[in-house]
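Project channel, design review

CF: Before we commit to the Ceratopteris richardii constructs, I'd like one complete example in the thread so the newer folks can see what an input/output pair looks like. Taking C2H2-type domain-containing protein.
RD: sounds good, go ahead.
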Amino acid sequence: MLPIEVGGCYNLTNKHILHCVCEFEEKSRCPNTQSRTYASQASFDGGYYECVICVGEFEQLRSLNQHLNSNVHEPYEYSCKYCGKQFRELSALVSHVEWKACGGMGAERLGNFVREFGNTRMLN
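CF: and here is what came back for C2H2-type domain-containing protein:
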């Protein structure tokens, strides 16, 4: 799990920042290259369509396929330094901190950090 730590309250290393930026750029550049998983009628147990990963039950095959292609089975890679809440997506953590859901730094301080990081990155 990678705790995202930014600015004065956070101690994010350049390695962590680079990891986050690269991950964001990679996902932004190739949104349709992600492999898709599809269930078939074989997933029907007589009452529901069952997820083979988490044993979740769905009334429709379409719902099971949406579930399989969501991030629900992804690991929680990010955690908030303020409250410890865990997130699967970097964007969810940024939103959490930006909206001060737990006393986070808020949009203005987060924006300043991102701008400063961008300027530093351009100089190096």
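RD: helpful, thanks. Residues 2-25+38-123 form one domain.
CF: Helices lie at 14-29, 61-68, 90-98, 106-123.
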